[in-house]
Amino acid sequence: MKQETVLEVKNLQTYFYSSEGVAKAVDGVSFTLQKGETLGIVGESGCGKSMTSLSLLRLVPSPPGKIINGEILLNNTDILKLSDEELRKIRGNKISMIFQEPMTSLNPVLSVGEQIAESIRLHQGLSRKDAWEKAVDMIRLVGIPAPEKRAKQEPYQLSGGMRQRIMIAMALACTPDVLIADEPTTALDVTIQAQIIDIIQNLQKQLGMSIIFITHDLGVVAEICDKIAVMYAGQVVEEGTTDSLFEKPLHPYTNGLIQSLPKLYEDQEELSTIHGTVPSPYNYPIGCRYAERCPFATELCRKKQPELLTIEPGKKVRCWMYSKEWQGATLMEEMTV
Amino acid sequence: MTLFILKRLAQIIPVTLGVTLVVFLIMQMIPGDPAIILAGEGASQETVAELRENLGLNKPLAVQYTDYIKNLLQGDMGHSLKNNQPVFEEITARLPITIELAFYSILITIVLGLVAGIISAIRPYSFMDVGLMIVALLGISLPSFWLGILLMYLFSVQLHWLPVAGWDSAKHIILPAVTLGAGGAAIVARMTRSSMLEVVNQDYIRTAKAKGLKGYIIILKHALRNALIPVITVVGLQFGSLLGGTVLVESVFAVNGLGRMIVDAIRTRDIPIVQGGVLVASLIFVFINLFVDILYRIFNKRMDLN
Fold first, then answer.
1. In terms of Cα–Cα distance, which of B69, B114, B124, B90 is closest to B262?
2. Which of A47, A90, A176, B71 is most solvent-facing, going by the fewest CB within 10 Å?
3. What angle do CA B159, B163, B167 make, to 5 degrees?
């Protein structure tokens, strides 16, 4: 099957300027997304995954945030170079987004049907009546019973799970090429999480879109993603297919993340953790950003930042261990001992 | 909703009783005998005593008050002590003027306030915003009688654009209405601005942007409707001070409205007129508050659940 690149992000840098200094929230992130593919972006809180997703639609709150560098190519058009008007036509139409908080992401004073219908009217030019009917269809599609009645209701009359389905219906109403789902299940019960994920996967098959799934939940990622980008301190530290990443994680951080997952069938006294804390985005170390927490770190790691190395096609890692220099460095250390 | 409206209407009874009682007692407390004032300086003791007897001022206070309420229940608001005209007629002759003045003032308050508030909120900390907010600060700080005199001096005395006083044409309405509405407009502008600034940072505004909606739709449909909820409360409160303000503004611009009628009646101790005037003003206030609460519920449907 010939792969078709829908979205390509190159060296994206989103910084925040405040009185405390410059926070490098997203610092040189690159990835590609193929048609129909699901990419998971994982990492702990504050690693820049949400800011990466907001940057894709230029929704970073500005000021204080600013995209200072990079390219975001949607079907070979650079989103960062578009005029406001051109950007507006892409938002909600070619790229849609589902947010983390279904409780606050819907407008409390407008009916949910109207909130879905307005983007249909805008992007597809349908009449008020047709757009409303399509909105009702979308609500039916995401599995909400009595869609005609629900469409007329306001968000406060719906449960959290239903609101998130409404968000999905809204995001998919114009059949976008790319859906960005920013922790869409984090605020929901586990049973509802599974339903929401099922709905997203089914709709992906029906509509053939690509998905960027942002989460800190490795379980969810393992279930639905084709490939994964692991982020740490504003950078991608490892990228690969889901299978390869779980079977053979290359980066010590990825390994740490997988090790710290609770295991259901093993007798565990204590959960494994990664020691230390994430460095402050205002003051990243000059070397590898994970070096302070890494059990394998050497002088080289602390002095110089590693590049994102391509190990094999589709498999990348940002770690000195996989470089030519590493062999030399370890040899040098052995010799001095 | 119907139950809510009925409940609120029932509240009018205690409010009316309270207002009449308080006004009645205050009028008794302030120095000056209506009979003496009415009889004129140099009137004989006998004339004054007779007048007092005729007006029923010799009766005990409790009797005077219950008589008043009894008559009120029969639709009789009494007669003016000064010219013996029915109070009801005096009021109906002047009420439309005050209502007209109040209507244009509140229109100025809402339109100017909202427009200035939205413009400020769209570009916070810009020149426009800072300028508008300084004007708003002035609007809040200046007492209306002083602002009225300043406006009168500028537009009537110096520029001769508008008439000094009176209530004959549309031109006459402009200065009093602006004077009365300015303070409210300033408060509404500041409230709208802060409310809008809070709303535009909400998640659902980000959702609206992510949908690719046009800027003005995001502002007017998604942000303003939510931002209006606290603004409606402020506008409602503003009505109260507006009714008080008519007293001052009508005096400054020699407008023959309800406010001025009450002031004149207080001066001559014309108790029935004062009581009637204040009663009508407070009833208007109660109804406006009810209207505002209903509006509030329409805009904020979540409240209706309770």
1. B90
2. B71
3. 160
The CA-based angle A110-A114-A117, given to 5 degrees, is: 155
Residue B37, in any domain of the structure: no
Q: Which residues of A touch B (CB under 8 A)?
A: 57, 59, 61, 87-93, 96-97, 99, 101, 104-110, 118-119, 122-123, 154, 156, 167, 170
Per the structure, the count of domains in chain B is: 1
Specify the CATH number for the domain of residue B110. 1.10.3720.10
Work out the average pLDDT over A174-194.
Answer: 83
pTM of model > 0.90: no
Res A332: pLDDT: 57
Q: What is the DSSP string of B167-235?
A: SSSHHHHHHHHHHHHHHHHHHHHHHHHHHHHHHTTSHHHHHHHHTT--HHHIIIIIIHHHHHHHHHHHH
- Closest-CA distance, B115 to chain A, in angstroms, reads 21
With cut-offs at 50, 70 and 90, classify the pLDDT of residue A337: very low
Domain membership flag for residue B63: no
Look up residue A250 and give its amino acid. L
pLDDT tens profile B152-178:
899 988 998 888 877 778 888 889 999
Q: Is A121 within 8 Å of A131 (Cβ atoms)?
A: yes
Contact yes or no for A107 and B301 at CB 8 A: no
Model confidence band, residue A113 (pLDDT cutoffs 50, 70, 90): very high
Q: Do A59 and B210 touch (CB under 8 A)?
A: yes
Q: What is the predicted pLDDT for the residue at B305?
A: 46
Kindly state the helix (H) or strand (E) to which residue A97 belongs, with its residue range: strand A95-98
In a domain, B183, yes or no: yes
Reported as type and span, the H/E element at residue A41 is strand A38-42
B268 within a domain of the structure (yes/no):
yes
The per-residue pLDDT for range A204-215, each reduced to its tens digit, is 888 889 999 998
Pairwise CA distance, residues A264 & A257, whole Å = 16
- Given an 8 Å threshold on Cβ–Cβ distance, is B204 in contact with A156? no
CB-CB under 8 Å, A107 with B212 = no
The gap between the terminal CA atoms of chain A, to the nearest Å, is 53
Confidence of residue A293 (pLDDT cuts 50, 70, 90): confident
Task: Provide, as residue numbers in chain A, all residues whose Cβ is less than 8 Å from the Cβ of B206.
Answer: 59, 99, 105
Residue of A61, A87, A92 lying closest to B211 (CB–CB)? A92
> Which residues from chain A sit within 8 angstroms of residue B304, using beta carbons?
none
Nearest chain A residue to B300 by CA: give it: A109
Residue A285, pLDDT > 70, answer yes
Residue-range definition of the domain harbouring residue B246: 87-299
pLDDT digits (tens, 9 = 90+) for B33-61: 777 777 777 778 888 888 888 877 888 88
pLDDT the model gives residue A313: 86
8 Å CB contact of B204 and A104: yes
Q: What is the pLDDT of residues A268-284, one digit of tens each?
A: 677 777 878 888 888 88
Among A60, A79, A105, the strongest candidate for a mutation testing the B interface, having the largest count of B CBs within 10 A, is A105
User: Is A109 in Cβ contact with B225 (below 8 Å)?
Assistant: yes
Do A105 and B207 make contact, defined as CB atoms within 8 angstroms?
yes
**Closest partner residue to A106 among B207, B209, B302, by Cβ?**
B207
CA nearest to A104 within chain B: B203
